[in-house]
């Protein structure tokens, strides 16, 4: 029989029924932003596989799990802090905290607990350099981006994008215990990808961001300036996307895929650049936003797949 | 002697269901963590 003591009733409401949480495990899972986690897992695995050296497969899997949970923890902290503005935007109002399915204190405790847990596990399974890097990434996303930059500068996602770009470097560091140029190039691909990706979204969601006081670039600098900056970042991103091939840590298949997808990325970015002011439907921006996700997944899946195949062939020939 | 009044509160079926699911999730997570640390320790000691 499910009974609880009246001592749990909040002060001043002796006769009232105490609040009993209706949150379910799936609500806590949603706090981890599973879709973002899937990208983090992919990029971290790619960094791990591309790194020179080997790692025990069990420890590698545990390390990836720790990195994914760390990313999820920072997502939970983000949702805890941003619940006030999430509640007022259509894209985010159904998240667990603003919809009332998870209490803010529970989300905070969940995020902090998983942050500590993920860093400790990565330190034990891989090394403490990678663990410190993961701790810094969580701090960067939850504190520097979410609490600092997001509501104060239109360059929020440019600087904050670094948090999303660190996972391949963490994966690399888990294997080698240090950083390298190759890991930095993988970081730069995600870092440069973030502005065109989020500004494309901000273009067609600018009214919502504006109404909750988040200074996204279209609201502050205007649509025309945003479109120019999207194109400028895309021009830098595409050559950096091909760089792993020219630097020798990606094969020809990756080079071709990165060049073709890069050309398509530029085509979409150019369509956004040429979009008319005040375009209500924002079709080019929506297409760029959709393709940008495909682009990043495409690059990292190709790099991962080709590296694995090359290693298997090299192992077979040895 | 007057019978003591039961002041405890009965959960609704929804609250009960949600609490049961949370309890199961916590149990599964704890068991998974025990296995995780055991396996990591074995691998670390073995290497």
Automatic annotation (TrEMBL), chain A:
Major location category of this protein: membrane
Membrane topology: Multi-pass membrane protein
Keyword Ubl conjugation set for record: no
UniProt cross-references to CDD domains, sorted A to Z: PT_UbiA_Cox10
A Pfam family matched in the record: UbiA
GO biological process: heme O biosynthetic process
TM annotation in the entry: 36-53, 59-81, 102-122, 128-145, 157-175, 181-204, 230-247, 293-314
Enzyme Commission number(s) of this protein: 2.5.1.141
Protein location: Cell membrane
Cellular component terms per the entry's GO annotation: plasma membrane
Annotated pathway: Porphyrin-containing compound metabolism; heme O biosynthesis; heme O from protoheme: step 1/1
EC category name: transferase
Catalytic activities: heme b + (2E,6E)-farnesyl diphosphate + H2O = Fe(II)-heme o + diphosphate
Recorded GO MF terms: protoheme IX farnesyltransferase activity
Keywords assigned: Cell membrane, Heme biosynthesis, Membrane, Transferase, Transmembrane, Transmembrane helix
Gene3D superfamilies, A to Z: UbiA prenyltransferase
Physiological role: Converts heme B (protoheme IX) to heme O by substitution of the vinyl group on carbon 2 of heme B porphyrin ring with a hydroxyethyl farnesyl side group.
Family indicated by similarity: Belongs to the UbiA prenyltransferase family. Protoheme IX farnesyltransferase subfamily.
Protein name, entry field: Protoheme IX farnesyltransferase
UniProtKB/TrEMBL annotation, chain B:
Alphabetical UniProt keywords: Membrane, Transmembrane, Transmembrane helix
Keyword Transmembrane set for record: yes
Record bears the keyword Transmembrane: yes
Entry's transmembrane regions: 24-43
UniProt name for this protein: Protoheme IX farnesyltransferase
């Amino acid at each position: 029989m499910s009974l609880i003591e009246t001592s749990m009733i909040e002060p001043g409401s002796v006769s009232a029924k105490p609040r009993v949480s209706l949150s379910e495990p799936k609500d806590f899972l949603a706090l981890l932003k599973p879709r973002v986690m899937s990208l983090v897992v992919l990029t971290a695995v790619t960094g791990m596989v591309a790194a020179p050296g080997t790692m025990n497969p069990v420890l590698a899997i545990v390390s990836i799990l720790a990195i994914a949970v760390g990313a999820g923890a920072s997502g939970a902290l983000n949702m805890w802090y941003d619940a006030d503005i999430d509640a007022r935007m259509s894209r985010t109002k159904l998240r667990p905290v603003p919809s009332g399915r998870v209490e803010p204190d529970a989300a905070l405790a969940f995020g902090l607990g998983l942050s500590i847990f993920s860093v400790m596990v990565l330190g034990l399974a891989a090394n403490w350099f990678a663990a410190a890097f993961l701790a810094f990434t969580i701090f960067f996303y939850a504190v520097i981006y979410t609490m600092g930059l997001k509501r104060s500068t239109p360059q929020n996602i440019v600087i904050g994008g670094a948090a999303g770009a660190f996972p391949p470097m963490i994966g690399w560091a888990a294997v080698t215990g240090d950083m390298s140029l190759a890991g930095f190039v993988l970081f730069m691909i995600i870092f440069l990808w973030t502005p065109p990706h989020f500004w494309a979204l901000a273009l067609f969601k600018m009214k919502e961001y504006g109404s909750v006081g988040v200074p996204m670039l279209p609201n502050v600098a205007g649509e025309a300036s945003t479109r120019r900056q999207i194109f400028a970042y895309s021009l830098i991103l595409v050559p950096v996307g091909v760089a792993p091939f020219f630097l020798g840590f990606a094969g020809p298949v990756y080079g071709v895929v990165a060049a073709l997808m890069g050309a398509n990325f530029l085509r979409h970015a150019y369509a956004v650049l040429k979009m008319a002011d005040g375009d209500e439907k924002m079709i080019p921006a929506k297409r760029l936003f959709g393709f940008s996700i495909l682009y990043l997944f495409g690059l990292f899946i190709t790099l991962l797949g080709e590296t694995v195949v090359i290693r298997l062939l090299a192992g077979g020939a040895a | 002697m007057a019978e003591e009044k039961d002041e405890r509160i009965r959960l609704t079926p929804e609250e009960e269901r949600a609490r049961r699911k949370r309890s199961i999730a916590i149990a599964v997570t704890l068991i998974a963590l025990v296995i995780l640390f055991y396996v990591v320790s074995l691998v670390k000691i073995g290497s």
